[in-house]
Structures are given as structure tokens and as C-alpha cells.
Amino acid sequence: MNLSNASSASPIRFAGSELGAVRHICAFFSSPEEEYRVLLPFIVDGFQSGDKEFHVVDPKLREAHLERLADAGVDLEKAEKSGQLKLCDWNEAYLPDGRFSQNRMLAMWEDELEAARRAGFPLTRVVAHMEWNLEDREGVSDLVEYEARFNLLPKSADPVICTYDLTKYSGDFVVDVMRTHPLVIMGGVMWENPFYVPPEEFLKEWRNRRR
To answer: What superfamily does domain 12-210 belong to in CATH?
Structure first.
């Protein structure tokens, strides 16, 4: 896998473990309280380390997300003015014209992560809420394929956390998403994912299944 195999990446403490070179993670939570209990230390550490923070949230929860950051001690005004924090709702990031395009989204991440490096940020810490795929929009059924293809992006040390609300998905869907991420957070703990399938193999199987 390319995106996550950055051998020079410094370890990061996260979710009861140490995040090393592999950095594409699916995180399953049963409540906002559980989610922020796990994610906030990782996010705050990123601000303190001088990393860029790119967060994608439900449009209805944008202000609540900012309140969580402020309550954790993040200077929002400073972070936004300096460009350290970029906060998008998922319409802006994933559905800018009302539909989801895998190719557009993958190109956007490449551009954003490279732009952050050029701006001098050591890393970009991505936290993206993924429930946009439950909306009735064109292309949203391509989410699992997109998650697999994300692993084929050029090498990067940037941690990318894809968060899913466990209460909203079937068991079959959760298993498919897990198979596209080398690391998983479940029950608030991060572990190496034994169900992970390399992207070339997974994509072949997935396309045959859908056909």
C-alpha cells in the first residue's frame, strides 16, 4: 500500500496505541461522546505539534464540532487565520455539485495534502465524517470502492481518519469498509486490521461483485 507507507513518519500516540507508518484508519463510534473522547487528544496534539488539521463534518454539526474544539482548548481564531485549521461540511468536500465523484475526490486530497506540505506544515491530520453516503445523492454507492482506491494515492505520512457512526450501518457494510483500511478503531481502541485486503485485490473482487 502506498499512501500509508511513509517510512520516515514519526510515531503518534492515538487511541491506546502508537500510529506508525500505516495511517489510513477507519474509526467506528456508537455516539458523539465516544467519538470525541477518542479523537480530541489526537486533534489537540496535532495543533500543538504544528500540523495542519483538515476536518469534514455533517453540515448540521459544524458549530457543535467547533464548540468541541474550543472546549478542548483550541484557539479557533488563530488556527483559522493561520490556515492550520480547515473545516468543511461534507457538501463542500464530497458533494460540491450534489453528487459524489471518486476521481474528483481523490484528486482533491492529493492537491490538499501537497498544498499543506508546500505551506510548511509537517503533516496534515484528516478527520472525515463519512455518513454523507447515506444521503440520496448520485455516486454515494461508490464509497467503498473510493476507500480502497484511496490506498493507491502517492506515499504520504499524513494520518487520515474516516469516521463512521456504527448505529447507522449494517454489519455487511461495516465489514466491507474495514477491508479497505489497514487500521481500525473499534470500542475506542486502535488495532491492526486482520480483515484488510490490498487495494488491487479488493477492487477486483468488488467490481466483480457489483457486476
So the answer is: P-loop containing nucleotide triphosphate hydrolases (3.40.50.300)
